[in-house]
């Protein structure tokens, strides 16, 4: 398995509120772990929310006695939601902060996925397929037939999300959990909306297939998002399920 992640501030923001985590090695009971988090909540709080969410989730994964990846993802996210909510309510500088969260674990040919918010996971096999469902106002409008999928990308309320970690103490942060199979040679892409709002799925797929390496693909995706406007922070993790005996690679740029 090879993986590469990168996060970029974009062209319009001064602070990068995205955070990523990339590990092809075990994290507690998890055989590997990949996370993209897109923070929100003002000039001081967004980057804190995404960074702390990842730090606390990794700590949870390293200390839990659970072994099932789906259960760890579900319970871990609910745990960090409470911690970030408490932080936001105990410090005025952090008031209103929250973060999206999309995470993936690969185990024995299966991928376990959790998401809260509008950061996404795509499966790139014979074609590109969005596995996660955005927790956003425009996604709800698409499902109700009030908006076309392509219109959602440019809708003036495209950034309004309906779920986030840390914004409420109740179960509004309950993640969607998915389990899919992955074939040798296929790829997974985790990304923030700074990529998907700037680059359509067709072009994402084309860039990944034409690139000579996953590192080249990620850098090209981010460069393309910036060339198309770079209106938000941009994060992407690309994972290739190409297994060779005793060989994993891990690369990330922040």
TrEMBL record:
<protein>
    <submittedName>
        <fullName>Stp1/IreP family PP2C-type Ser/Thr phosphatase</fullName>
    </submittedName>
</protein>
<dbReference type="InterPro" id="IPR015655">
    <property type="entry name" value="PP2C"/>
</dbReference>
<dbReference type="Pfam" id="PF13672">
    <property type="entry name" value="PP2C_2"/>
</dbReference>
<dbReference type="InterPro" id="IPR036457">
    <property type="entry name" value="PPM-type-like_dom_sf"/>
</dbReference>
<dbReference type="InterPro" id="IPR001932">
    <property type="entry name" value="PPM-type_phosphatase-like_dom"/>
</dbReference>
<dbReference type="GO" id="GO:0004722">
    <property type="term" value="F:protein serine/threonine phosphatase activity"/>
</dbReference>
<feature type="domain" description="PPM-type phosphatase">
    <location>
        <begin position="1"/>
        <end position="241"/>
    </location>
</feature>
């Amino acid at each position: 398995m090879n993986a590469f992640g990168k996060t970029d501030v974009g062209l319009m923001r001064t602070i990068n509120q995205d955070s990523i985590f990339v590990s092809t090695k075990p994290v507690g009971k998890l055989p590997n772990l990949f996370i993209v988090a897109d923070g929100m909540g003002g000039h001081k709080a967004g980057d804190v929310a995404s960074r702390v969410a990842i730090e606390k989730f990794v700590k949870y994964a390293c200390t839990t006695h659970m072994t099932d990846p789906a259960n760890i993802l579900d319970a871990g996210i609910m745990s960090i939601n409470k911690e970030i909510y408490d932080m936001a309510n105990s410090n005025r500088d952090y008031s209103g902060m929250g973060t999206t969260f999309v995470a993936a674990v690969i185990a024995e040919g299966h991928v376990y996925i959790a998401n809260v918010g509008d950061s996404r996971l795509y499966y790139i096999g014979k074609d590109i397929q969005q596995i996660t469902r955005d927790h956003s106002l425009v996604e709800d409008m698409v499902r109700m037939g009030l908006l076309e999928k392509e219109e959602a990308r440019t809708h003036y309320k495209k950034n309004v999300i309906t779920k986030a970690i840390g914004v409420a103490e109740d179960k509004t942060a309950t993640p969607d959990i998915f389990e899919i199979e992955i074939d040798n040679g296929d790829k997974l892409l985790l990304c923030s909306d700074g990529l998907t709002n700037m680059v359509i799925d067709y072009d994402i797929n084309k860039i990944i297939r034409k690139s000579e390496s996953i590192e080249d693909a990620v850098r090209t995706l981010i460069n393309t998002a910036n060339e198309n406007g770079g209106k938000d922070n941009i994060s992407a993790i690309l994972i290739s399920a190409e297994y060779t005996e005793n060989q994993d690679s891990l690369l990330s740029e922040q």
